[in-house]
From TrEMBL:
Protein name: Uridine phosphorylase
Nucleoside phosphorylase domain ranges (all copies): 31-242
InterPro entries, sorted: Nucleoside_phosphorylase_d, Nucleoside_phosphorylase_sf
Cited Gene3D superfamilies: Nucleoside phosphorylase domain
Annotated GO CC locations: cytosol
SUPFAM superfamilies: Purine and uridine phosphorylases (SSF53167)
This enzyme's EC code(s): 2.4.2.3
GO process annotations (BP): nucleoside metabolic process
Reaction(s) catalysed (UniProt annotation): uridine + phosphate = alpha-D-ribose 1-phosphate + uracil
Pfam families assigned: PNP_UDP_1
CDD domains noted in UniProt: NP-I (cd09005)
Length: 252
């Protein structure tokens, strides 16, 4: 039995079903995971208008500092984040910023520090359907530079390097963790790989900035730590400040 189409449902099909039209989204999108972090970003956005609700994810577009931006809770895992990245990058967004969280893979990285991914080491189950093993997933250098500049302006502890993405949160064993740390990963999350890869394939600039919630090497759990809570707020401020920086740059 043969399928009638090469792909059952494409990003274009999904955009049509969600009734998203050209110009509905902003040039920038800030994409956190949980809805409460999305709502925290929206407090800075003027006149937000809901673009769509799909499954449990809702996106809005409005004005920030004179620039139209889009904000939505775009998924907590590789699979749902991949769908959001497809929708946004195929819907006309040119700059995607993931505002997430991660576990540190170096002893000197503390709970509450900030990580900017320079790229991703793919351990997720989504990207093998998109790219071959030798594909190099990278973040956009210009976006990363603006995020780093914003971190410096706000006086935050920042680390930059590759991030390992996994789907198996409860199987971060010593053997597996040490393998990916030896490959250069400074943190682990469940999103950056699919988010950055899909944006890259769609010629969309993308970056991933994360608050450190725990340290996998030392075993420290910081999910209820005030420093982690503050870092969650800080990555929002950094993402917004980075947009200001980019929009006021001479070549913007």
């Amino acid at each position: 039995m043969k399928m009638k189409k090469d792909i059952h449902m494409t990003a274009k099909d999904l955009l049509g079903m969600l009734q998203i039209k050209p110009g509905d989204f902003g040039n920038y999108a800030i994409v956190p995971g949980p809805a409460d972090r999305r709502d925290a970003v929206l407090k800075y956005v003027q006149n937000p208008v809901r673009n769509f609700s799909f499954m449990e994810y809702t996106f809005y577009s409005g004005e920030f500092n004179g620039t139209k931006i889009t904000v939505g809770n775009g998924g907590r895992y590789s699979s749902d984040s991949a769908i959001s990245a497809e929708i946004l990058s195929n819907g006309g967004v040119k700059n995607l910023i993931r505002a997430g969280s991660c576990g540190a893979l170096k002893e000197d990285i503390q709970v509450g520090d900030i990580i900017i991914a320079t790229g991703a080491i793919r351990g997720d189950g989504v990207t093998p359907y998109y790219v071959k093993d030798d594909f190099k997933t990278t973040a956009d250098e210009k976006l990363n530079a603006a995020l780093a500049q914003a971190c410096k302006k706000l006086g935050l502890r920042l680390h930059q390097g590759p991030v390992w993405t996994t789907d198996a949160l409860l199987r971060e064993t010593r053997e597996i963790v040490e393998k990916y740390a030896s490959l250069g990963a400074i943190a682990v999350d469940m999103v950056s790989s699919s988010f950055l890869t899909i944006a890259q394939l769609n010629n969309c600039k993308a970056a991933s900035i994360m608050a450190v919630s725990d340290n996998v090497i030392t075993g420290e759990m910081g999910f209820t730590n005030i420093n982690y809570y503050e870092a969650e707020q800080n990555i929002i401020k950094v993402a917004l400040e980075a947009i200001k920086i980019l929009e006021t740059a001479p070549d913007s």
